[in-house]
Design a protein that fits this description.
The protein is of the alpha+beta class and about 725 residues long. The protein has a 6-stranded mixed β-sheet, with no helix packed on it. A hairpin with a 4-residue loop joins strand 9 (about 350-355) and strand 10.
């Protein structure tokens, strides 16, 4: 049977079309128009409209549930919102379209056209109903036949057990059959989102074979582009960017055709395998471009690289140190919040270059002289879509640039001394210099321009923050009926004034999350002095998080370092802060196992010596603002698919200490070992390298970094031991010889 809602929709649309034809009426109907007829037809149109379109809500809700949304009130609310929004959109566009038709073709023809459209929609709905009926009948017969075969097999198995025979019906144990083919066969799982069960394929296609100590070009490998087409590397002199074209996960199949995969899951270091280790890199990668970037004597930062959202462009940074003799005092202090120089910090000149990946050329560059920008691990820069933000810690300025489709940087604004061009004009008008010049009078000292570092007023951004803090304290005083919040604001005013920007990130195209710390923490690099200062000022630990709308130049909120509101937002909407690239996000807010690990980490901080709940909040919020593109988008790091030791490997692409045993990945569903990653343990034993704990010297420590391909079962591990860099490949290899 065809569901009743489809029949009702078809009938309602057919009646609606006929009523529109009679409303005109159409030219082929010889009826004179009168008020009574028009009123009756309009009432019938309203009834038919309800008959035709109200069942669409149930249809949309059923489709949402079939595609993995939960069958609860949240889904009903979501569907209701979409349904109401589109109905409202139709109520806006419909009269506009009707007025256009009436003005150009007349009321009768317009009404006839609307009626014909409704009748066509009714026939389309009817054809859909017939097709749906045939498809449902076919599926019901198929399910009935499947149930009958299953019942027959069950009866046979029961009779065999009765006569002492072993059943021939065995449940398939192949996880790939259960998770991959079954889901593709039935297309949708009743309780899971398509993203979840599509990812199950990676539990069976794993990088199960390691090739240790592969020979590689003399360069520093960095990471893959987020579409997986290229591998980015830096040249040995750190002045050029090298792009390698990825040839696919099966590129070395012919080279490894004589290597069995059943006995061992790794290819150890040895003379008989020297040819494979020598050729393996050239099998997987072909050099595509070598782009010389740093031409002015500087060096590129190996920890600084950003890809645009469309994977067309790459942003890298170069820098070189400057000295006091080569820059002036005004270059070092450009605002009244510039950080004073200490013996531990030096000024540098920075250049940010944007590279066209396909063309292999530098498109544009922007330069910052005599500055301090934390470019390591993308600490002081951020890229959101086509907006590029740079934080100058030295001058306390945020620079915003747009990236054009052709890759050029377009300056938008500076946020710091002034938040917009209107602020600058207002400041210049406040001096009233043109008035004195017009009157031929000398300009008073109070109205003469001074150097920016000598300005007494707060800069525009700091003024907005202080104003917001004052209004917030005043509002709380009125609400509580107590002057205590306002007194607290006046008492901590000096600490608020001495705050300086240390980190920032773009939350979206309009909002910035900025972290402020005390100026002494930026000037004093001795952690003992900082801890001593913090212990003396236990109630004055002014580290603030500011949410700022740079388009409207408004401060939206201020959060202290122990803010439970900000912690709740970070815990439940983690990806809004991380903004992961790729299709495999794994965070405490969308992954149960990651959430459990996060809760254990939080509880560990609370239970530590001198630990408490506020200290746990402070420790977790110290991760904000998040660094740009610091997470590895790989399905093999998804905690819903695999379990592994997060102490030796994680989604963060920072180097880790080398594990003394192979890194093991377990299937999350079965708990069985899925694959192992050998990272030079056999080579270390052959060379009889001393254990790590026998080397207290930090220069002898073993570090390892992992480069995951975003989609393929292909992983590169780069191991550092003293001055050596050892390269290991972890690939998919199956050859049951």
């Amino acid at each position: 049977m065809v569901p009743n809602k489809f029949q009702i929709m078809a009938v309602g649309l057919l009646l609606l079309g006929l009523e529109f034809i009679f409303l005109g009426p159409a030219e082929m109907i010889p009826i004179e128009t009168n008020f009574t007829q028009t009123a009756i037809v309009m009432a019938l149109i309203g009834i038919s409209y309800s008959i035709a379109f109200i069942p669409t809500f149930e249809t949309l809700n059923n489709l949402a549930i079939q595609n993995g949304f939960p069958d609860d009130v949240t889904t009903y609310s979501l569907v209701s919102g979409f349904w109401t929004a589109f109905c409202s959109l139709g109520e806006i566009l419909g009269p506009m379209f009707g007025g256009f038709l009436t003005e150009n073709f007349g009321f009768k023809r317009s009404s006839t056209v609307m009626g014909v459209i409704a009748i066509i929609m009714a026939f389309v709905c009817g054809i859909t109903c017939i097709y749906y009926d045939e498809l449902t009948t076919h599926d019901s017969r198929k399910n009935h036949r499947h149930q009958r075969q299953k019942s027959t097999s069950h009866n046979r198995a029961g009779s065999n057990r009765h006569y002492g025979k072993q059943s021939s019906v065995v449940r398939p144990r192949n996880t790939l059959t259960n998770n991959g083919i079954q889901y593709r066969k039935y297309y949708l799982h009743p309780r899971f989102h398509p993203f979840v069960y599509n990812n199950k394929l990676y539990q069976n296609v794993v990088p199960n074979f390691s090739i240790e100590r592969a020979e590689h070009p003399n360069c520093f490998l960095r990471k893959f582009t987020y579409d997986g087409r290229y591998l980015m590397a830096f040249s040995s002199d750190i002045t050029s960017v090298v792009l390698y074209k990825y040839q696919g996960a099966a590129a070395a199949a012919q080279l490894l055709q004589t290597i069995p995969s059943g006995n061992k899951d790794y290819l150890s270091y040895g003379d008989k395998n020297a040819a494979i280790r020598r050729k393996i890199f050239r099998c997987f990668f072909k050099r595509h471009h070598t782009i010389t970037v740093a031409l002015d004597g500087g060096q590129l930062s190996r920890e600084c690289s950003l890809f645009t959202e469309d994977n067309r462009f790459l942003i890298v940074a170069s820098s070189f140190a400057t000295f006091e003799s080569t820059n002036s005092f005004h270059d070092r202090y450009q605002t009244n919040e510039s950080i004073p120089m200490s013996h531990r910090s030096t000024y540098e000149n920075y250049k940010f270059h944007i590279i066209d990946i396909d063309a292999g050329r530098v498109v544009d560059s922007i330069e910052f002289n005599t500055d301090k920008i934390q470019i390591a691990n993308n600490h002081g820069i951020y890229l959101y879509k086509n907006i590029f933000a740079i934080l100058s810690v030295q001058h306390q300025i945020i620079h915003l640039y747009y990236i054009l489709p052709n890759g050029e940087f377009i300056f938008n604004r500076k946020i710091g001394r002034f938040c917009s061009e209107e602020d600058r004009l207002l400041f210049e008008d406040s001096l009233m210099q043109p008035i004195y010049r017009r009157l031929n009078q000398p300009i008073p000292v109070s109205h003469r321009p001074v150097a920016a570092f000598r300005e007494v007023p707060f800069n525009s951004l700091k003024h907005r923050i202080i104003t917001f803090a004052f209004k917030q304290a005043k509002r709380r005083s009125i609400e509580n009926g107590s002057p205590k919040p306002l007194c607290q604001f006046y008492r901590d005013f000096d600490y608020l004034v001495n705050l300086r920007m240390i980190k920032m990130q773009l939350l979206d195209e309009e909002h910035l999350l900025i972290k402020y710390e005390q100026e002494y923490s930026l000037v004093t690099y001795n952690q003992h002095i900082i801890n001593k200062y913090d212990a003396y000022n236990q109630t004055k630990l002014w580290n603030l998080f500011v949410v700022y709308n740079w388009k409207t130049t408004k401060v939206l909120n201020i959060y202290p370092q122990h803010s439970q509101t900000l912690l709740y937002a970070f815990e439940n909407f983690c990806n809004y802060f991380r903004q992961p690239y790729g299709y495999y996000p794994c965070s405490p807010s969308n992954n149960y196992h990651a959430h459990v690990a996060y809760k254990e980490f939080k509880q560990l901080i609370i239970e530590n010596r001198n630990g408490n709940y506020n200290e746990a909040i402070r420790c977790i919020l110290s991760l904000l603002p998040q660094h740009a593109q610091l997470l590895t988008p790989s399905p093999y790091l998804d905690l819903s698919l695999f379990s592994y030791d997060e102490k030796v490997i994680s989604s963060n692409d920072k180097p880790r200490h080398t594990s003394e045993v192979p890194i093991r990945f377990f299937n999350r569903d079965t708990g069985m070992l899925s694959f192992r990653m050998h990272t030079g343990q056999a080579f270390m034993q052959q060379q009889r390298f001393p254990p790590l704990q026998n080397h207290p010297n930090p220069t002898n420590r073993q570090l390892i970094a992992f480069i995951f391909h975003p989609t393929d079962p292909f992983i590169i591990s780069v191991q550092r031991y003293n001055s050596q860099y050892l390269l290991h490949f972890h690939i998919r290899h199956f050859n049951p010889l």
